[in-house]
Amino acid sequence: MGKVVATVQVNGNEVYLVKEDDHYFIYWGEAKQEGKASIELLTPKGRKPTKSSAYKKFLQAVDVAQYLKFERL
Question: What's the predicted TM-score (pTM) here?
Answer without folding.
Answer: 0.82
